[in-house]
């Protein structure tokens, strides 16, 4: 077995390999990712060569996501594949270990993947993360009378409206945990390959795009707005609802955060019934715990400042998971991170760590589970953790899935 990086002259071969392994997916999807994505580099792909050909591959592409207002470097794992004639030889596991080593070498903070094979990836350190994926809402037979709006809703015009849409996305997701940081080139690459990136409608005011809504009368994929323009979501939601009712749809599916104003307005437009789907298809893995916490330390210091929280004495909590540990120090409303032992240790599974870091569970919500494992913390340290890791609503937009 030869395990190495993909070479530039082998890109077409690896695309054919993926097309063979994932025979239910269109070849065009792999061509877009490996041949037309400007951020792609052959070094991002690890392959196994047997009998003179590629028989297994794994892609790890660099992306930045947010935890609060902080950007962290995430390795997006995809294209985990083995030729049917070469399966059950450990090739995928070997490739994933090689990608973990590569991420460690290049300073990645964490990794993410999407799968239904959670047990396989758990053996290598990825942990399932619960995420709200969609809400399905029953529709009224007719819309209530629309209120006057300062916004003009119209169809999206691709080239002219792209800068305004990007600004809306950046503003709306500036502090939303787990959202991707999308560069202009990232938008252009994905727009060329995925129609769902195209917003159907935009809301305009005084010549400026203030909000957008992506999707169709059956499914809303995404919606964002500029700072100070949350009310622009109302005419957008009503326009989409009008299309759905005219098409005689009984329900509309919304891949939006549970607290999103568009989802709330749809529910308030008449008697409705909603079902919400939570999945664990997303899996997360820490690459370097100390580097991740150091990256987050300015954000954690801001939280202490905003809460006017200053411990009566310096506090130090050692977080540990999967053989890694790092100590969070809090003193005079400042947070620092070191490899020195703290006052107390908080051992966590990878799942518990990300629930806490992403605000999907507070330390109080985790307390009972930790106590069953024999872990308890003094009250001063609990108070500190409540401030450092407040509840949030992490969300990963469906258009960014890989």
Strand portion = 25-35%
Number of strands: 18
Percent helix, as a range, is 25-40%
Low-confidence stretches: none
Given the structure, what is the number of helices?
Answer: 12
- The CATH architecture classification of the largest domain is 3-Layer(aba) Sandwich
Describe the structure using short key phrases.
402 residues, alpha+beta, Aminopeptidase, Nonspecific Lipid-transfer Protein, Chain A, 3 domains, seven-stranded mixed β-sheet, 12 helices
Fold topology:
Layout lengths: L1 E4 L5 H11 L5 H9 L9 E6 L2 E15 L2 E13 L8 H15 L4 E5 L3 H5 L4 E2 L2 E8 L13 E4 L2 H15 L11 H10 L5 E7 L2 E8 L3 E7 L7 H14 L4 E4 L6 H8 L5 E6 L2 E5 L2 H18 L8 E7 L2 E8 L2 E5 L5 E4 L2 H8 L5 H10 L6 H10 L14
Parallel strand pairs: 4-5, 11-12, 15-18
Antiparallel strand pairs: 1-2, 2-3, 3-4, 5-14, 6-14, 7-12, 7-13, 8-9, 9-10, 10-11, 15-16, 16-17
Helix pairs in contact: 1-2, 7-8
Question: Any overview of this molecule?
Answer:
The chain has 402 residues and is α+β, with helices and mostly antiparallel strands. It has three domains: 2-128, Aminopeptidase (3-Layer(aba) Sandwich), CATH 3.40.630.30; 134-279, Aminopeptidase (3-Layer(aba) Sandwich); 288-388, SCP2 sterol-binding domain (Nonspecific Lipid-transfer Protein, Chain A, 2-Layer Sandwich). Helix content is 33%, strand content 29%. The protein contains twelve helices and 18 strands. It has a seven-stranded mixed β-sheet. Strand 4, helix 3 and strand 5 (110-114) form a beta-alpha-beta unit. Helix 1 (11-21) runs antiparallel to helix 2 and helix 7 (233-246) crosses helix 8 (261-268). The longest helix is centred in the last third of the chain and has 18 residues, at 289-306. It is globular, with a radius of gyration of 23 Å. The model has no long low-confidence stretch (mean pLDDT 95).
């Amino acid at each position: 077995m030869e395990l190495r990086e993909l070479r530039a002259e082998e890109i077409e071969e690896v695309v054919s390999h993926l097309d063979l392994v994932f025979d239910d997916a269109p070849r065009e999807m792999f061509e877009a990712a490996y041949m037309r994505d400007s951020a792609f580099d052959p070094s991002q792909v690890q392959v196994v060569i047997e009998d003179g050909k590629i028989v297994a591959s794994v892609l790890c592409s660099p992306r930045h996501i947010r935890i609060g207002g902080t950007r962290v470097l995430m390795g997006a794992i995809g294209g985990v594949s083995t030729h049917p004639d070469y399966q059950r030889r450990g090739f995928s596991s070997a490739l994933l270990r090689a990608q973990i080593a590569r991420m460690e070498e290049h300073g990645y903070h964490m990794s993410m993947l999407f799968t239904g094979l959670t047990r396989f990836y758990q053996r290598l350190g990825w942990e399932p993360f619960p995420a709200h994926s969609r809400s399905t809402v029953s529709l009224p037979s007719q819309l209530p009378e629309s209120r006057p709006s300062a916004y003009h809703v119209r169809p999206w015009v691709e080239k002219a409206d792209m800068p305004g849409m990007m600004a809306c996305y950046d503003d709306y997701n500036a502090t939303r945990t787990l959202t991707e940081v999308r560069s202009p080139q990232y938008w252009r690459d994905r727009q060329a390959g995925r129609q769902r990136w195209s917003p159907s409608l935009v809301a305009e005011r005084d010549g400026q795009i203030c909000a957008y809504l992506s999707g169709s009368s059956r499914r809303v994929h995404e919606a964002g707005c500029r700072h100070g323009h949350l009310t622009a979501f109302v005419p957008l939601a009503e326009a989409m609802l009008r299309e759905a009712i005219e098409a005689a749809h009984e329900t509309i599916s919304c891949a939006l955060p549970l607290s999103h104003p568009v989802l709330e307005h749809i529910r308030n437009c008449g008697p409705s019934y909603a079902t919400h789907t939570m999945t664990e298809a997303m899996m997360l893995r820490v690459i370097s715990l100390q580097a991740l916490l150091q990256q987050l330390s300015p954000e954690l210091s801001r939280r202490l400042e905003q809460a006017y929280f200053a411990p009566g004495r310096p506090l130090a909590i050692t977080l540990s998971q999967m053989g890694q540990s790092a100590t969070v120090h809090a003193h005079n409303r400042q947070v620092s991170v070191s490899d020195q032992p703290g006052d107390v240790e908080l051992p966590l599974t990878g799942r518990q760590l990300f629930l806490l870091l992403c605000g999907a569970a507070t330390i109080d919500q985790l307390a009972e589970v930790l106590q069953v494992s024999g872990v308890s913390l003094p009250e001063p340290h609990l108070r500190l953790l409540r401030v450092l890791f407040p509840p949030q609503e992490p969300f990963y937009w469906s258009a960014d899935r890989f």
